Amino acid sequence: MLRLLAVPALLIAAPAAAQDVTDPPSGSLTVSGGIDLVSDYRFRGLSLSDKDVAVQPAITVSHDSGFYLGAWGSNIDAGAAADDVEVDLYGGYETGIAPGVRLDAGLTYYWYPDGDGAFGPSDYGEGTLRLSYMLGPVEATGTVAYAWNQAALGDSDNLYLRLGLSSGIPNTPVTLNASIGHSDGALAPGGDYRDWSLGATATFDRFTLGLKYVDTGVRKTGVKAIDRRYDATVVASLGFAF
Q1: What is the 3-state secondary structure (H, E, C) of the chain?
Q2: How confident is the model at residue 204 (pLDDT cuts 50, 70, 90)?
Q3: Contact indicator for 137, 165 with CB cutoff of 8 Å
Q4: What is the mean pLDDT of the chain?
Q5: pLDDT tens-digit profile of 10-68?
Q6: Which pLDDT score, from 0 to 100, does residue 116 have?
Q7: For the whole model, what pTM was predicted?
Q8: Which residues pair with 159 in a beta bridge?
Q9: Burial of 10 (0-12, 13-18, 19+ CB in 10 A)
Q10: Which residues lie closer than 8 Å to 154 by C-beta, 6 or more apart?
Q11: Is the CB of residue 1 less than 8 Å from the CB of residue 75?
């Protein structure tokens, strides 16, 4: 766990050093991040912590131009090949393309530093394209994520499509969220499946409380130790942002 928490700390130090050397204009770089405690780490509906509690720190460095770099981490329980830590290293570009419309194009490297094949067969990359649009008080977000043929995916690929909706309740700290996704390929148990969720978050200054229902359409194997990772559940979360 100390190794996991050290990753964002190193990222905080690195941008600071770069800023001293290049001396960019004041305010051109923004550092944001936080740490979440979740009752279950669900990735596209699947439990990667085997329904155990997970601690998830994150750090992002953004530039006024729209470019950003960051890291996100979590403890996991996904088998011996991945071991007990996941770190997502990501970067991309976000910009407005029309009134109320934003486009985000990025790349994520899924790194398992304690895995048998760290920086090798256990790790993989994925490109993401995200389009968001404000429909009055409702924000709709469509996401396309594609992981190309790689050794970690058995020399196969994976396509994930997701539609998300969110809306704040006026005069309250509460935001309602809903999503539905479809995964097809090497990362999908059984070859393909759907996931969906419905929940709410409440933000108080730098703290966020969350509760959501998560389920999938993964076909059952009959093995309880495996099927429990796909079962419907309610995930509770507590987050602190800086």
Answers
A1: CHHHHHHHHHHHHHHHHHHHHHCCCCCCEEEEEEEEEECCCEECCEECCCCCCEEEEEEEEEECCCEEEEEEEEECCCCCCCCCEEEEEEEEEEEEEECCEEEEEEEEEEECCCCCCCCCCCCEEEEEEEEEEEECCEEEEEEEEEEEEEHHHCCEEEEEEEEEEEEECCCCCEEEEEEEEEEEECCCHHHEEEEEEEEEEEEECCEEEEEEEEEECCCCCCCHHHHCCCCCEEEEEEEEEC
A2: very high
A3: no
A4: 87
A5: 333 333 333 343 444 445 999 999 999 999 999 999 999 999 999 999 999 999 999 99
A6: 56
A7: 0.85
A8: 146, 184
A9: exposed
A10: 186
A11: yes
Token code pair at residue 123: 């790790």
In contact, 230 and 189? CB cutoff 8 Å: yes
Question: Please, are residues 178 and 198 in contact by the beta-carbon 8 Å criterion?
Answer: yes
- pLDDT exceeds cutoff 60 at 120: no
Token reading at 171:
């005069």
Name 79's Cβ contacts closer than 8 Å, sequence gap at least 6: none
Rounded average pLDDT over 66-85: 84
Where on the phi/psi map is residue 82: left (φ > 0), alpha (ψ -120 to 50), or beta? alpha
- The C-alpha torsion from 217 through 219 and 222 to 224, rounded to 10°, is -40
Evaluate if residue 112 carries a pLDDT over 90.
no
